[in-house]
What we know:
The complex is a heterodimer of chains A (about 170) and B (about 110). With about 170 residues, chain A is mainly beta. Chain A contains two helices and nine strands. Chain A has helices at about 1-10, 155-165, and strands at about 15, 30, 35-40, 45-55, 60-65, 90-95, 100-105, 110-115, 125-130. In chain A, strands 1-3-8-5-6 form a five-stranded mixed sheet, with helices on one face. In chain A, strands 2-9-4-7 form a four-stranded antiparallel sheet, with no helix packed on it. Chain B is mainly β and about 110 residues long. Chain B starts with a strand and ends in a 6-residue tail after the last strand. The interface of A and B includes residues 27, 31, 49 and 102 of A.
Amino acid sequence: MDGILGFERQMAGYTDLTDLPMPPLGGKCWVLDKKGQFLLERGPGTLRTIACTNAGSGSLLILDGVPDENGELPMQMLEIPGYIGNGRQLYKANPPVMGSWMLDAGFQHGLTIRSIGGQESAPAMASIVWVPFKAKAVQVKLPEASVAEPKVSPETTKAINKALGKK
Amino acid sequence: MENLVDIEVPAAPGSLMRAVQLWANGRFRISRRHAELYSVQITSAGAWARLSIFNGLGRLLFPMTSTFTGSFWLGAGAEDGIIVELLSMTNAPTVTVNFREQDTKLV
């Protein structure tokens, strides 16, 4: 009975950790050492790694999504090509497994961690590192010299011109 | 933090990467400015040992409550430095910590 009540408590709401500042070097790092649901990031980014040093019990889920005020995610499946549902699973370990799990996994909606089930007193312990997406950081302008002219054969050029009604 | 032992770790020529191996119980400050904790290797688990790595502000970045051998890639930001703590009842674990700072200066 305690286990069931514990599970409900673990799933009720979530802990918002989105105010963790971005360090000058490297990615954001947070140590998971308790049961519950934790929102690490709102918006897109990259989950770099999970360094799990104590498996604990229960299960460890990492989701691409932001929970609502009740701590629930719609868990939408990828029915529409190119559509990423809020609650898509990025990583699931049931039970948690020790190790250095290098992912570099992209997430779109946000980053949510669920450490639930099992014994309340035996949570998995893991360092979780992620990097939020910064639009400015990826605005790379290629030097002009690296932009090669497209090589098109005379026959292809003729066919394109013909299709466009050009002589 | 009390009983901090400062260790100066040079950067490799032509690289920002730095590596240090630790094998004794204690609390070691291996970096004193913003750094990236790149990876950790535990090559000997020691006996009844614990490993903790903090940033310079004392925030935990990497816990290992009961040491075991392995290699962990992190790429974690460490504000104001990196502090490594090795604790054991008898034999300390042997740990290699790799990190980088913004330049090759020895600070």
